[in-house]
Task: inverse folding
């Protein structure tokens, strides 16, 4: 029966866990790279996702595999969700602090866990749920320990909540896409939808879509094909190998990786409290992952 413990356990394998780890690492590095691009957020999203989608679609067409309307239709829901996640988050940080927006976003595993149970019948063990909550608490400490005294606006926090649900919806749609199209098709289609949504929004909010400088293009290409291939494509593939809630839990590593990379390469200070919180997140997520890694090797009960 779909959605039972048996199906969830069968889905877990080591490659899926490794893929999710690679994906969130790429996202964590990408968020730091974004600081080096001399463009505003929505414009970065339009160029980044548009470049990835168009280049990969052209390469696929050269191999006689075209991205047609069937792919765009199948990836529409996920692409729109991801597009609005990007737009809402960058709009949120203009009104509230990055710390507030990031902490709200860190609640994604809770939202996805509820959706995973309702939509796919995934069941989370109490031990994993407790460790996940510990990891979320660690992320909150990491972010708030670096929080500034910048003013906040409840409208910005509300936009961040909208981004939270849009990001969560993207994960759900990515999981469901396997029944319709391939992972590559879905990733390319979703990327094109993100560009389609964010380009006009950038103009609407007064952000320039002028041709990037050569230096900015270098960073954009690194983001497009780093976060695009190692991030979205690999995560979309991993979500077909592991439970949805587990893939979402991996995203708690993104702010941890971003903090570590910013400290190593941008000389951004890291407090002792942040270091302790990072260790807490890593220990909690290690507990979740090691607990799940052995599930796929368990004897499978007989199906009736």
Result:
């Amino acid at each position: 029966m779909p959605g039972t413990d048996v199906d969830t356990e069968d889905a877990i394998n080591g490659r899926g866990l490794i893929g999710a780890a690679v994906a969130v690492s790429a996202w964590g590095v990408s968020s730091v790279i974004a600081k080096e691009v001399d463009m505003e957020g929505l414009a970065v999203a339009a160029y980044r996702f548009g470049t990835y989608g168009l280049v990969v679609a052209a390469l696929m067409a050269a191999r006689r595999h075209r991205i047609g309307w069937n792919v765009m239709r199948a990836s529409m829901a996920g692409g729109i969700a991801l597009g609005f996640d990007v737009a809402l988050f960058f709009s949120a940080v203009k009104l509230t602090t990055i710390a507030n927006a990031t902490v709200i976003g860190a609640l994604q595993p809770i939202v996805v866990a509820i959706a995973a149970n309702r939509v796919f019948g995934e069941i989370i063990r109490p031990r994993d749920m407790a460790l996940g909550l510990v990891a979320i608490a660690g992320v909150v400490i990491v972010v708030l320990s670096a929080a500034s005294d910048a003013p906040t606006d409840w409208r910005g926090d509300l936009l961040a909540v909208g981004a939270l649900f849009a990001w969560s919806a993207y994960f759900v749609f990515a999981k469901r896409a396997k029944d319709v199209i391939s992972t590559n098709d879905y990733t390319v289609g979703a990327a094109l939808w993100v560009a389609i949504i964010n380009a006009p929004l950038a103009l609407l909010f007064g952000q320039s879509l002028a041709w990037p400088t050569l230096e900015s293009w270098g960073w954009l290409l690194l983001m497009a094909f780093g976060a695009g291939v190692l991030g979205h494509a690999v995560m979309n593939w991993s979500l077909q190998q592991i439970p949805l809630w587990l893939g979402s839990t991996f995203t708690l590593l993104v702010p941890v990786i971003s903090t570590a990379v910013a400290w190593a390469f941008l000389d951004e200070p890291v407090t002792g409290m942040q270091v302790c919180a990072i260790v807490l997140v890593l220990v909690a997520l290690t507990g979740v992952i090691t607990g799940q890694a052995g599930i796929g090797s368990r004897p499978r009960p007989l199906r009736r």
Observations:
- Residues 39 and 212 are 8 Å apart (CA to CA).
